[in-house]
Amino acid sequence: MVRPIMKDPLFLAMKAEPAVEQDQDVIRDLQDTLQACRDRCVGMAANMIGQRKRIIIVSAGPVPLVMVNPRLLSGRDTYEAEEGCLSLPGIRKTTRYRHITVAYLDSRFKPKTGSFEGYPAQIIQHELDHCEGILI
């Protein structure tokens, strides 16, 4: 189901709780909402649709990547970026890593580790910030 985008900064500043296998509906809603917003959005965290769960989705390839309970394992080569967010007005500066490694569960809750660079890495870091209650 396509969910409205959360814009309440107090809610968005709350840290997400770990996701469990019973959160499949949140995953589906994130997929549907990202698809509905694909003309202006490349990633989402569950709190953006009103769910305080540690789930993100990133559209940086042919198929959106769902990451459940993602953790940044390492990052290197920092740079300054400018980012926008559907939940917040305007563009803001932030510091990102060009190369990251992330541990996560896929949508079937199977453990994965992935290395990402460039724009996909930037999107993932933005969504990881959402999970931590960090607003850029």
Overview of this structure, please?
- This protein has helices at 9-12, 24-36, 118-131; strands at 43-45, 55-58, 65-85, 88-105, 111-117.
- The protein has one domain: Peptide Deformylase (Alpha-Beta Complex), CATH 3.90.45.10.
- The longest helix is centred in the C-terminal third of the chain and has 14 residues, at 118-131.
- 23% of the residues lie in helices and 39% in strands.
- A hairpin with a 6-residue loop joins strand 2 and strand 3 (65-85).
- It is globular.
- It is α+β, with helices and mostly antiparallel strands and 136 residues long.
Q: In terms of quaternary structure, what is this? A: single chain
Q: Cα-atom Rg, whole angstroms?
A: 14 Å
The number of distinct β-strands equals: 5
Helix-residue proportion = 10-25%
The description of the largest β-sheet is: 5 strands, antiparallel
Beta-strand percent range: 35-45%
What name does the CATH topology carry?
Answer: Peptide Deformylase
User: What is the assigned CATH homologous superfamily?
Assistant: Peptide deformylase
Helix-strand sequence: HHEEEEEH
Count the DSSP helices: 3
Q: Structural class of the helices, strands and pairings?
A: alpha+beta
Count up the domains: 1
- Any low-confidence stretches, pLDDT <50, length ≥5? none
CATH architecture assignment name: Alpha-Beta Complex
